[in-house]
């Protein structure tokens, strides 16, 4: 019986750290951008100013990882790499990958956090608040925001309150699509600089404004859609109840609250991503964690929200929609 037990699942988890390092190295070294244009390894090495042998080892590993293809000694990006790992693509995901590496390098080891039960509130938090984090969140929000814009018709809505809106990714995609919709992004002052850069580049400054401040403290303007895009997992139950009540008070009749989250299943044993993410929140916040649909639904019901439903968006992103 014991002979049937193999090391494979554990070794594949262990190796995933290596494959992640290979991916981050390739993103940092600009490999996918160059391979999009140049296929010959000698020319790639000239362009990247890298020695041939280490570069070839890297490229061959990326082939094994199914991110590149090798034909007649030439290297090509697989379609998935052209779409997500080439900077000029509007689905670019590289900043998100680099943010993960950065945060892992600069946080306490998870075993320390579990032993002490204390979050890492040192320099790492300052790092995360910086531009790199906001860019990473921008990458991360593209796919769910696009799916959301197709899932719900916001044509009868006028004012979106994007609480902790980061780069403004959701506000940009939704106001670009729905003519009557304007948005206010509530964000920390340091982040608002980056938000406005994204709005100038991808959106419309006449339709999106920033409201600088702490979302626990600033007065919310009246609105008919409130959006919490990956916000609740950073906060405790008490803090989330406070925020949802604050929204309810300023939400117009028939208004909506929209929550995107990495939801746990009801016994909190999966899916894998929200379970990993909950550990991540243990490292990075003072009360945050992944929540289940039932938990969030109960808070919303107790406050007075009605018709509460959830829908899968994309990957680990789920949306919860509730009505006033
Ligand atoms: C995980 S990001 C989500 C960004 C965006 N909503 C999205 O879906 O991509 C959380 C954002 O909340 C902001 N944030 C965290 N605490 C905040 C606070 N107390 N007041 C205002 N913004 C805050 C952070 O700066 C960050 O941009």
What order do the helices and strands come in, and which of them pair?
Blueprint: H1 8-28, H2 31-37, H3 41-48, H4 52-64, E1 68-71, E2 74-77, H5 79-84, H6 94-106, H7 110-116, H8 123-129, H9 131-151, E3 159-163, H10 169-177, E4 182-187, H11 189-202, E5 208-212, E6 223-229, H12 237-250, E7 251-261, H13 272-284, H14 293-303, E8 306-314, E9 317-323
Parallel strand pairs: 3-4, 3-6, 4-5, 6-7
Antiparallel strand pairs: 1-2, 7-9, 8-9
The structure holds S-adenosylmethionine (SAM).
S-adenosylmethionine binds next to helix 9, helix 10 and strand 4.
Query: CATH superfamily membership of the largest domain, which one?
Result: Vaccinia Virus protein VP39
Query: SSE order, as H and E?
Result: HHHHEEHHHHHEHEHEEHEHHEE
Using the coordinates above, name the CATH class of the largest domain: Alpha Beta
Low-confidence stretches: none
Morphology: globular
CATH overall fold name of the largest domain: Rossmann fold
Name the average pLDDT: 92
Note the gap between the termini. Answer: 57 Å
List the total number of helices.
14
Major sheet characteristics: 7 strands, mixed
Query: What percent of residues adopt helix (DSSP H or I)?
Result: 40-55%
In CATH terms, what is the architecture of the largest domain? 3-Layer(aba) Sandwich
Strand adjacency order, main sheet = 5-4-3-6-7-9-8
What is the number of independent domains? 2
**CA gyration radius, whole angstroms:** 22 Å
Quaternary structure type: single chain
Distinct small molecules: S-adenosylmethionine
Instruction: Note the beta-strand portion.
Output: 15-25%
Q: List how many beta strands DSSP finds.
A: 9
């Amino acid at each position: 019986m014991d002979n049937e037990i193999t090391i494979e699942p554990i070794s594949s988890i262990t190796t995933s750290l290596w494959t992640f390092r290979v991916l981050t190295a390739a993103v940092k070294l600009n490999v996918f951008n160059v391979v999009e244009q140049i296929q010959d390894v000698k020319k790639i090495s000239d362009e990247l100013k890298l020695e041939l042998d280490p570069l070839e080892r890297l490229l061959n590993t990326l082939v094994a990882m199914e991110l590149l293809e090798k034909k007649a000694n030439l290297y090509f990006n697989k379609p998935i790499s052209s779409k997500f790992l080439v900077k000029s693509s509007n689905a670019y995901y590289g900043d998100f990958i680099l943010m993960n590496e950065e945060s892992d390098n600069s946080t306490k080891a998870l075993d320390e956090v579990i032993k002490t039960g204390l979050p890492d509130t040192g320099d790492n938090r300052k790092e995360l608040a910086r531009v790199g984090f906001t860019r990473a969140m921008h990458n991360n929000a593209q796919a769910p925001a696009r799916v959301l814009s197709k899932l719900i018709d916001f044509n009868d809505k006028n004012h979106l309150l994007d609480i902790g809106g980061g780069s403004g990714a959701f506000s940009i995609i939704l106001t670009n699509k729905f003519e009557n919709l304007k948005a206010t992004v509530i964000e920390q002052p340091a982040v608002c600089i980056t938000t406005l850069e994204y709005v100038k580049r991808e959106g419309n400054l006449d339709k999106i404004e920033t409201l600088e401040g702490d979302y626990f403290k600033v007065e919310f303007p009246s609105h008919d859609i409130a959006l919490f895009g990956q916000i609740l997992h950073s906060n405790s139950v008490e803090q989330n109840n406070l925020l949802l009540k604050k929204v309810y008070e300023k939400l117009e009749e028939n208004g909506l609250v929209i929550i995107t989250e990495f939801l746990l299943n009801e016994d909190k044993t999966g899916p894998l991503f929200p379970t990993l993410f909950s550990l991540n929140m243990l490292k990075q916040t003072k009360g945050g964690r992944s929540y289940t649909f039932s938990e969030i639904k109960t808070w919303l019901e107790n406050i007075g929200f009605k018709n509460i439903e959830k829908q899968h968006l994309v990957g680990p992103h789920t949306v919860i929609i509730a009505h006033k």
